[in-house]
Amino acid sequence: MSQLPSCETLLLESQGGVLHVTLNRPESRNAMSLGMVEELRAVFKAVRDDRDVRALVLCGAGGHFCAGGDIKDMAGARARAQAEGADAYRDLNRAFGALLEEAQSAPQVVIAVLEGAVLGGGFGLACVSDVAIAHINAKFGLPETSLGIIPAQIAPFVVKRIGLTQTRRLALTAARFDGREAERLGLVHFAESDAQALAERLSDVLEQVRQCAPGANALTKALLLATDSQPLSPLLDHAAGLFAAAVVGAEGVEGTMAFVQKRAPQWAE
Fold first, then answer.
1. What is the residue range of 262's domain?
2. CA-CA to 244 of 20 to 30 Å: which in 13, 25, 101, 147?
3. pLDDT, tens digit, for every residue of 215-269?
4. Are residues 121 and 184 in the same domain?
5. How many structural domains are present in the chain?
6. 250-260 vs 232-248: helix crossing angle, rounded to 10
């Protein structure tokens, strides 16, 4: 596995091809400080090209996922803005948007385990996950407008996740809702009733991920994300080339042979 960065706001644990990333500022319900943003970006960068890392699991310490942006950081940016102009606010906000872009495009499967507060920036992180698993009592919301600010960086990701109509309702009312409603909206894939059920669901999902070839997963994820922005015919041309290369590539050959020989492929052993 790649060398992981040293972190003060995150706990990192690698096990069986899975990197568990725990947001670790429980005293603030894991509010997203600039330091945490920078550390998360460093983690995603460190493992981006490492196919030994099959999945990243994001969770929070102390019973909460993430309560949004850190108000103290905003106060610090306010002080800098008074001295330097509005760019201090812009830079702080845009750094979080860059994190969301990098998390969404990570070649690995990104799994979010959501408990307690899932607000603002935490809501955004949930929206860029490939698989989201929530406790039924988790509290979701976009509280920004109730604070006189806007969900600037997360808005595009929320719209893509649950659609424009629902995003408008949630962003313009700052309504709170639970894990079952998050499942109904399509924000999360599973809503579980207790900690054991959460752990069992995560174990099941990770076992499913291990059945899939890591290189094929990375290419498939990039192809799926490209459907948002690429014209159809050129995208299908590109996909055909990817398919042809995959069939004769190492994973394609191994997967075909494993099927014929009625055995598990090497990546699933």
1. 214-268
2. 101
3. 999 999 999 999 999 999 999 999 999 999 999 999 999 999 999 999 999 999 7
4. yes
5. 2
6. 60
